[in-house]
Amino acid sequence: MHAPTETTGHTHEATGSAIVTRFAPSPTGYLHIGGARTALFNWLFARKAGGKYLLRIEDTDRERSTEAAVNAILNGLAWLGLEADGPPLFQFARAARHREAAESLVERGGAFRCYLTPEEETALKDAARAEGKAFRSPWRNPDYGTPPPAARYVVRLRAPGDNERIEVADKVQGVVTTAGREIDDFILLRSDLTPTYMLAVVVDDQDMGVTHVIRGDDHLTNAARQTALIRAFGWRVPTYAHIPLIHGDDGKKLSKRHGALGVEEYRDMGYLPEAMRAYLLRLGWSKGDLDIVSTEQALELFDLEGLGRSPSRLDFAKMDSVNAHFIRLADDQRLVSLMREHAARRGLPDLRLDDAALVPAMAFLKERAKTLPELLTQFSFLLAERPLTRDEKTIKALSEEVVARLARLRPVLAAVETWEHVTIKTALDDFAAHEGVGFGKIGPGLRAALTGGLPAPDLAIALQLLGKTESLLRLDDVM
């Protein structure tokens, strides 16, 4: 599924350079479904163009960043098949590079050292807010004064002039214009000389060669400030595409209440990775009247123009429908392996039958399942051990009259030479005709004897899948 990583193919329109995208999660929790969709869009866009898709772990929040969260992100991306081209870049490890970039900008006049005390800064910000203006530090003026000896300072961007305009030509939102007077002298280096998020992102994108920034529209307000900083450095501004966030089925911001789970939890709920990719693709991207788009199709069709401007809604019924589609398409041997893994993760008993028995059954039983747990349920009649446990309804179906009829049916089934559902069905129909009853008088009792009330397909198919020996033994158990 993974395309080559050579940087041939489509190029960035501004410079002719190969397309490079990045996914940049913060390791403060699991990889949630919105992050997974962002990763997918970046992966698809780069793969289709023959470019590079990179991963950056934005771990500058040292208090909340954890190794467990990093592993959850990497494992989630691996399960989805969205591994990056090369190892992840860890933002915190690049702090020295970020400081160097900020100090170089000071030397060029694009940034300045600010010696305001916290009290002075608060007073100036309050005054600016009262006038409806962005905060400007007096230290932006080179002639403002002499820094106090050994005073702590922060490094700030020298924001654009009040009459300047910052335009972000966004591929989803259109052209978004911000007046220079709306951008403050924001901090690049804190007083302990650690970089801020705004500085680190801009420097990392430049050093990684990122040409396209595809991310959630909660970052749209950052785009103008980052563009101002990029221009101060004299660097190329990447192409932006800010995608609407995913909402719950009630139209409100997605939360755990709606099912905003970690990607690995969807795996544990029994969804296939290819189904999740197809479902996430449709949460925010469309092409004509196509409904379910496979990854192979998406690698040919995906474009930024297909991204919608309205928030998408998480719909588990649709997710189930998409998953059912891909279960039907999946290789039977692979599904058996996935079913075994799923049973093990849930702490269920090992599937007692070998693949030789389970794989042929998959072709019949996967048609009735939307998830791996449902698939296991479909196999439960096959996996049950004799003597079967029978509920009250099943016991009631096995009356003396029914058992007597099953006793007459047993030699008929024993005489079937080719144990396939077509010949078995013929034998059952002939038996019903010989008994002078409709099959409705035979089916419920036979099903109760064979399955113990567990879900099962058409009886002739169920008999074929159980095998002749097991089928006859289950009939003997009720005699």
UniProtKB/TrEMBL annotation:
According to the entry, every stretch annotated as the Aminoacyl-tRNA synthetase class I anticodon-binding domain falls at 336-478
**Alphabetic keyword roster:** Aminoacyl-tRNA synthetase, ATP-binding, Cytoplasm, Ligase, Nucleotide-binding, Protein biosynthesis
Q: What is its EC number?
A: 6.1.1.17
Subcellular localization: Cytoplasm
The record lists ATP as bound by: 256
Q: How is this protein annotated for GO cellular component?
A: cytosol
Pfam families, alphabetically?
Anticodon_2, tRNA-synt_1c
Record field: catalytic activity? tRNA(Glu) + L-glutamate + ATP = L-glutamyl-tRNA(Glu) + AMP + diphosphate
Q: What is this protein called?
A: Glutamate--tRNA ligase
